[in-house]
Amino acid sequence: MNTDLLAIALLAGAANWAFRVLPTLARTDRLTPGGLLERFLSATGPAAIATLFVAAVLPELSGGKGWPLPFVVGTLVVLAAWGTTRSVVIATLAGAVLHGATVWALG
Amino acid sequence: MTGTRPPLADGLIAGLPIVLGYFPIAFSFGVAATRAGFTGLEAFALSAIIYAGASQFLALALLTSGAPVLVSAFTLIAMNLRHVLYGPALMKAAGRGATTRRAWAWAFGLTDEVFGQALGALARGQSFSEGYMFGLGIGAYASWLAGTAVGALAGGGALDGWPAVSAGLGFMLPALFLALLLSILSRRQVPVIVIAGAATVAGTLALSSTSGILLGMLAGAAAGVVRR
Questions:
Q1: What is the pLDDT of residue B213?
Q2: N or C: lower Cβ tally within 10 Å for chain A?
């Protein structure tokens, strides 16, 4: 085992554990009813999901070739499936399947 | 997050899109690691210990470029700083009575996708359960490890003959984030979402994708503080 790799993995892994676990255990949400921190934390979730969605689709849209058809189809299917089923699981799977099917159909 | 099934099973089922989305990414990581000259065991160790996709790919680049250990480690640590926001935001949504007795274990699994899925479930009115969090996290972690192992064993080009499958699997995470965004969407959240999205685009184009993600989250959360 490469010792540099192991050292980097252990340092980064320990930090990841601390970043994810310690703020959860700290229960800062209980300390600030109605305060700035409470509003900040309430908005963090929607902001994070919006950010991650944009970050996930940017590489596909930044090639300068417009919106690729499989992306458009997949996105529309997610919207339609969510609208009809209100299920995150079904909407996600349907979008991915139709995205792949469009790639297959386009050859 | 409790329904008719045990919470653990509920979490495992709700995590299915994450499981399917993680496998091909981890598979790519296993392939990239072995291509970079690392053994399958080393690739697996990176996935098991760090468990953060983008920073694992960066770790490969840093290690192969000969960057000093401490510089590499702090670069990876900085990349994952955004995760400090997830636990408090999740527990805020879970409510003051939610327990965190076993958070030392399940919270390690609070990746971007697990956090988003858990938050979406709470926004849809489910109640918080540590069992559900374990279910979400275990499926995702197992998929990440399995994908890495299979990718390291398969080597390069395993999905080259299946472009449609590869494309569909690649769209799994954008589709998941879009579905999660729809599940939490409300008029009240629109300014937060718009500002977060715009800041992500600006940060990514001007600086880097990592900076864009951090800026987007902070700008969106700050918008939540200033709105009436």
A1: 81
A2: C
Q: Report the domain count for chain B.
A: 1
Inter-chain residue contact B50 with A4, CB threshold 8 Å: no
Q: B97 burial class (0-12, 13-18, 19+ CB within 10 angstroms)?
A: exposed
CB B60, CB B42: distance < 8 Å: no
For residues B85 and A40, give the distance between their C-alpha atoms in angstroms, rounded to a whole number: 10
pLDDT of residue B218: 87
Could you give the CA distance from residue B100 to residue B108 in angstroms, rounded to a whole number?
13
Q: Does B206 touch chain A (CB under 8 A)?
A: no
* Assigned token pair, A35: 């305060």
Sorting pLDDT into bands at 50, 70 and 90, what band is B5? confident
- Is 70 exceeded by the pLDDT of residue B29? yes
B88 in reach of chain A (CB within 8 A): yes
A vs B: CB pairs below 8 A: 311
Q: Is the pLDDT of residue B192 over 70?
A: yes
Question: Are A19 and B46 inside 8 Å of each other by CB?
Answer: no
Q: Which domain holds residue B24?
A: 7-162
Q: What is the ipTM of this complex?
A: 0.80
| Nearest-angstrom CA–CA distance, B193 and B202 | 14
Query: Does a structural domain hold residue B52?
Result: yes
DSSP secondary structure letters along B143-212: HHHHHHHHHHHH-TTTTTT-HHHHHHHHTHHHHHHHHHHHHH--GGGHHHHHHHHHHHHHHHHHT-HHHH
Q: Is residue B188 situated within a structural domain?
A: no
Evaluate if residue B27 carries a pLDDT over 90: no
* Residues of chain A contacting residue B174, judged by C-beta atoms under 8 Å apart: 53, 56-57, 60, 74
| Nearest CA distance, A65 vs chain B (angstrom) | 17
Question: Residue B148 domain-assigned?
Answer: yes
The verdict on residue B216 lying in a domain is no
- CB–CB contact A89 B88 (8 Å): no
